[in-house]
Amino acid sequence: MTSVVRPPDPTAPLPFFVYGTLRPGEVNHDLFLRGRTVAEEPASLPGAALYAGPGYPYAVDRPGSAVAGELITAAPEAYGALLTALDVLEEYGGPGRPGNVYDRIAREALRADGTPVRAWVYLASPLVSRDLRESGTEIPGGDWLARCHP
Q: Which part of the chain is the Gamma-glutamylcyclotransferase AIG2-like domain (predicted)?
């Protein structure tokens, strides 16, 4: 079962679950995360499927599926600026905004050993999710890196 928990503070210092171009070795990791993290570890996001976008993926809620990625813990001194930068990158303007491309929500991710951890994740907004479910291209296995680097 996937739990969705919204902390009372949308700037709560949670780790980030990343699954696409923010993963280590990918272009946005180098631009946004390099030197701003204290930990990066393999993880998965249960209850989500991955769809191809125009050069980057979208995660969409779907029970029974999982997305592969990394759990990124920001350096405390970099957290606020990083949260702002990632919100801009992901075109997230705040909870429930109609122009959001992604929504940032707190979700339970799983470390490689199965330990759950609450983390921020950017999921496709409801309108984008609907379009992807209707006519998008799902990434088999939910792993962006396997799709890009077989």
A: 16-145
